[in-house]
Each structure stands twice: as structure tokens, then as C-alpha cells.
Amino acid sequence: MNILVINGSPKGENSTTLKLTKAFLAGIDSDESHLIDIITVTTAHIEPCRGCFCCMAKGVCAFKDDMQAFLKKYLAADVVIWSFPLYFYSMPSKIKTFLDRLLPIYLPYIVTTVDGRVEHPTRYDIERQKHILISTCGFYNIQGNYDALLKQVEILFGKRFISILCPEGYLFDVHIMQKRTGRYLSYIQKAGEEYFTQGYFSEFTQTKLNELLCPSDLFIEMTNSGWMK
Fold first, then answer.
1. What is the mean pLDDT of each run of 10 residues along the chain (229 residues)?
2. What is the pTM of this model?
3. How many angstroms from the chain centroid is the CA of residue 82?
4. 141-148: which pairs have CB atoms within 8 A and are 24 or more residues apart?
5. Hey, is 137 helix, strand or coil?
């Protein structure tokens, strides 16, 4: 199985979200039988889309940058893992640039879906692809904070995606929280194992992934006191 990880964190290899993603990969690739490729968009040369629509007519973008190779990797992937933190209720700007540059995958024609939406059909058959969103944020819950991002992912991938959303993400860099964050990473790894064997997370694992790393009132106190120094 070809697994493509798109690391969209501005922190690159030092990303907290990538730490979670690597734990998930350890579970999904426990027998090291899969081909895993990680793209770090912050260090890549990706020009922003200019909206010229040359790619929709020809299937090839006018820019000659890293996206040419990335598109080939994307189309060959059986599983695409989107790994990035929540930025301003959405995604970091460079990952949005990557997403915009996927336009060559689509045809210029407009079709109406069974649920009444209009969209561009894909140029390639990628219905086999599964998508996983792994994301951390600096709030203590996801309610109201991930709504816009989740809706966008739902529109793009429909029922072909699953998500792991981890609030209180900065606690993974707090030394005194290592025991608790270590347990959480073990559940992330378990989620990877379950996804590979059955295509979904068990109720027990999902419950553990939804648990806060520390109580909300303590998290707020820790966060706010850090900014008041």
C-alpha cells in the first residue's frame, strides 16, 4: 500500500502534529510492508495558484516547481494523510497552497452531484483513495473550532476520510506531561493498527482519542499564565 503523508505544519520536522502522525504510521505499518512517503510543504517550492486554468484545459500546471512530482505521488497514493495544526480555524497557508495546486486533477466541466452540489469531475479515477486528517490545536476542545475545516474536507473527500483531532496539542512539548502524552500516542498507534486491519477505529480507541490530555480548567490556567509572564 502506498501511503503519502502531507506535512503542512510550518514547524516542519519539529511539528507536534507530525509526532502524532508518526505514531499512527507506526501502527499502520507495524510489519514495514508499506511504501511511506512524507512531503514537507514548508521546505518545498510550491508557487501559489494564479487561477489561469491552464491546468484544467491541459492537465498540466504552467508552473514548473515541486508540485509536478508531488502530483504524481498524490495520484499513486492509496492513503493520503493530511498532517497539520489548526491555524485560524482552518489550515496553514502553505498546505492550502498545496491543495489549490491539485487543480490539474480536475476537468473543467461542471456536473451536478446526487445531493444537488455542483463540482468539477476528476480527470483520474482516484475513488480508491482514503484520506486521514490528523490535526492538533491550542484550544481544549474542537467544538466550533474545526467546523469550517471539517466541512471543507467533507466536501473534498466525502465518506473517504476519517480524522484524528487532538486539542491541547502544545502539551506534547511539556516535560511534566510526558506520561500522559505518551499514553495518548500509544492510542494513536493503536488507531493506526485498527485502520489498517479494519478500516476504522474501535469505539474504545475513539473514546481514548477524544479524551483531554488534562482538565480544561487546568489547561486554561497553564496557557494563560504562560502568556502573562
1. 94 92 89 87 94 87 92 95 95 95 90 86 88 95 93 89 93 90 95 91 94 90 75
2. 0.92
3. 2
4. 141/167, 141/212, 141/216, 142/167, 145/86, 145/89, 146/86, 146/89, 147/89, 148/89, 148/90
5. coil
